[in-house]
Amino acid sequence: MQEEKIRKEVREGYAKIAKEEPSSRPTTSCCGSSPTHEELSKKMGYTSEELNSIPKGSNLGLGCGNPVALASLKEGETVIDLGSGAGVDCFLAAKKVGEKGKVIGIDMTPEMLDKARENTRKGNYENVEFRLGEIEHLPVADNKADVVISNCVINLTSNKKKVYEEAFRVLKPGGRIMVSDLVLKKELSAAIREEAHPSSCIKTAIMKDKYLETIEEVGFKDIRILDERQYCSEELTNDSDAKVIIANRNTNAQELKSISELDEKSKKYVEEVLASTLSVNVSAIKP
Ligand SMILES: C[S@@+](CC[C@H](N)C(=O)[O-])C[C@H]1O[C@@H](n2cnc3c(N)ncnc32)[C@H](O)[C@@H]1O
Fold first, then answer.
1. CATH number of the domain that 25 lies in?
2. Which of 156, 179, 200 to mutate to test the pocket of ligand 1 (most atoms within 8 A of CB)?
3. Is residue 214 part of a domain?
4. Which of 14, 105, 106, 172 lies 20 to 30 angstroms, CA to CA, from 264?
């Protein structure tokens, strides 16, 4: 029941983001906010060249890494993107796998799919397809994919094991995952968990060790953390981060000029989130 309730709230949260005009909100990701999507995305590892190569509106600044840059995609490969949003990583992957390859984005939020499909038309992509579905029940046949990617999505589900089992099922033997995600390096207090909005990426985030164990339990081998960094780096520990976290708490965050202007409770919230989270890029192989 709790799982369903969280899923519903996550879906509603992202439906709202999908329908917003880009300029009408601060750039909001699991990791914070920034004046522009592009600026935030560069902090996550995207280059300007990559961002300029995809249709406008496909990057909503919602990721926490750049999985395509690390996935060593080859021409002709089939890629599945779990929680594809407006399509940013699918379009970057499409270029790498070429016309003989195929990219399938899966998302459970119809409003995000509408956006992603509109972007597909804008960019004339013939090798990209978006499917409505939950990452815990992938609408994909067994042994289809060479690579499964995902960007800042698996933290949002209460059933991470099911997601990784599904990724394992749809991969061909020898296939690989490349996932950018948010994990915890320190347990969050019950109060912070309680207060966090389900779409804020910390509500159902788990400890890094547990996360890696889950990937191992479902049968993946050669599990590697390619890089990890402070989820919101020191320079991001500023007004814009505070704003988005406080925005999730439904207060008048837009008015804030700096973290020092936060009330004590909000400041504690921001500090605890920053001290407890990590952004990781994880790869693994289906034997
Ligand atoms: C943080 S956004 C990331 C979007 C995209 N990966 C990006 O980097 O821009 C999370 C996306 O995952 C989708 N999502 C969250 N939980 C999901 C689930 N259980 N099944 C399918 N999609 C899900 C949301 O609808 C949303 O589009």
1. 3.40.50.150
2. 156
3. yes
4. 14
